[in-house]
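Supplementary Data S3. Sequence and structure tokens for construct A.
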Amino acid sequence: MKLEFMDSSVPRDMSSTLKPEETFFSWRAPVRPFKARSRNFFWTVVLLAILLSIIGFVLEGIMPVFLIWAIVFLVFVLFSVKPEDIDYEVTNKHILIAGKKYSIEVVRRFWITERWGHTLLVFDTPVRFPGRLELVVRDIDKDLLKKKLERFIPYEEEAPNFADRAASWLSKRLSLDA
């Protein structure tokens, strides 16, 4: 029995709720995509932070300085600490990320993308948090993955929004890895 949802023209296979849970894929991969950065990258970030801190302090006081250095700390941690590997599993009923279950029924759509040499399987959800689940995929046939998931979730790549286009434009013109 197939039922068509109002938010999607692609019907979902509702008979999966009557079937026992079947694991399509399971793998072990990093928590997030990671790209090691050079020493020059971190020096560039620190120098930019010093410049912005001076400007922020003159215009607004000490609070912007705290914010800027908190962001510098976050950048340092994200780009210097290699992420741990966790277990991922995709079934006909759930998406399991390190033992945490997300129902496949609340996923609007999915797509496959690349970032920093890693393949990402992205699920879009209607809930505010998490609005998007990004799973690092390793050693899995992307076409088979897409074929299996399309039975339950529509495959539809998201068009880049203003923030995505601005970040892409900025990263092409301002390379911090000089």
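Construct B, processed identically:
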Amino acid sequence: MAEFDFDADDLTEALDAYAVELERQMTRAMRNGGAMLAAEARSRAPRGPTSHLAGSIQGIEPTGSFLAGTLSGGAVAIAAYAEYVEAGTRPHEIRPRYRSALRWPTLGGFAFARRVRHPGTRAQPFMEPALDAVADAIVAELQAAADLAAARVGL
């Protein structure tokens, strides 16, 4: 017969230290994952004359708790039109908001209309493909964070 003794207080202390360190490391890993996602999405975003869309992409500061199962993070494009570029638009009518007619420049001056039929725009996904491209790297970052937390507390 084999017997062993262990000190429950030491185990509880080690597990508490692991929980604190795991929370810290997973939050750091989520922050890094958001930065990776943002960088990849910026590289994939369609570029116009100003590159405003790409410049508006940034990592999100992680919120919640890993131990509570609510830790979340990622990246976001804050340009007002980002969703329309990502998903495209259906054909739709455009009407003036503040005036009685729409106006746009033409070669001979300006054209006016009370409404126009916009044909819609095709989707140009950049966020979803970016997530697909970095998902394995983010998972590896989270695994490394868990391993580091265990190593730092001696587990």
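Residues 8-44 form the longest helix (37 residues). The two ends are 27 Å apart (CA to CA).
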